[in-house]
Amino acid sequence: MRFIKRPNDVLFRVLVVLASISLAALSLLVIYSVVMRYVFSDAPDFVEPIALLLVIVIAMFGAALKVREGGHIGLDSLVKKLPPKGQLAAMAFQHLCLIALAVAIFSGCLQMVETTMDDRIPILGLPEALRYCIPVVASVCIAMFSLENLLALFVPKQN
């Protein structure tokens, strides 16, 4: 299990740092925008597109982090009533569904990256594809974390 756990540990820490920095930056950006708008009557144009990118980072990386921790939405009340083998099957099915979702997100967003590479985000001038690169990275993380959790179901725990 170490072959996947160690890289996922590093990936997890990187995502925590990036999501945390994005959340802090978003908070500061919103405060700046509010002060500029209501105190100085001069709303900056660049705040909204940057805030949108930060929200995408927070949401997608946060989702990947919760997959690693096993904190995603599930029907625990139903699964807990199943016998142990049924619980194992349900959890395995859940992780397989998450991997399938990650593949779908990866595929769809990769197509959008290719389609929007030449377009620019207004005001910022950055490639529109940047909005879709974030979910591509997050989907790889979701798949890696789900695979780790899936393998952990079938590997005996070591003390």
TrEMBL record:
<keyword id="KW-0997">Cell inner membrane</keyword>
<feature type="transmembrane region" description="Helical">
    <location>
        <begin position="12"/>
        <end position="34"/>
    </location>
</feature>
<dbReference type="InterPro" id="IPR007387">
    <property type="entry name" value="TRAP_DctQ"/>
</dbReference>
<keyword id="KW-1003">Cell membrane</keyword>
<dbReference type="GO" id="GO:0005886">
    <property type="term" value="C:plasma membrane"/>
</dbReference>
<keyword id="KW-0812">Transmembrane</keyword>
<feature type="transmembrane region" description="Helical">
    <location>
        <begin position="46"/>
        <end position="67"/>
    </location>
</feature>
<keyword id="KW-0813">Transport</keyword>
<keyword id="KW-0472">Membrane</keyword>
<dbReference type="GO" id="GO:0022857">
    <property type="term" value="F:transmembrane transporter activity"/>
</dbReference>
<comment type="function">
    <text>Part of the tripartite ATP-independent periplasmic (TRAP) transport system.</text>
</comment>
<feature type="transmembrane region" description="Helical">
    <location>
        <begin position="88"/>
        <end position="113"/>
    </location>
</feature>
<feature type="domain" description="Tripartite ATP-independent periplasmic transporters DctQ component">
    <location>
        <begin position="27"/>
        <end position="153"/>
    </location>
</feature>
<feature type="transmembrane region" description="Helical">
    <location>
        <begin position="129"/>
        <end position="155"/>
    </location>
</feature>
<protein>
    <recommendedName>
        <fullName>TRAP transporter small permease protein</fullName>
    </recommendedName>
</protein>
<dbReference type="Pfam" id="PF04290">
    <property type="entry name" value="DctQ"/>
</dbReference>
<dbReference type="GO" id="GO:0015740">
    <property type="term" value="P:C4-dicarboxylate transport"/>
</dbReference>
<keyword id="KW-1133">Transmembrane helix</keyword>
<dbReference type="InterPro" id="IPR055348">
    <property type="entry name" value="DctQ"/>
</dbReference>
<comment type="subunit">
    <text>The complex comprises the extracytoplasmic solute receptor protein and the two transmembrane proteins.</text>
</comment>
<comment type="similarity">
    <text>Belongs to the TRAP transporter small permease family.</text>
</comment>
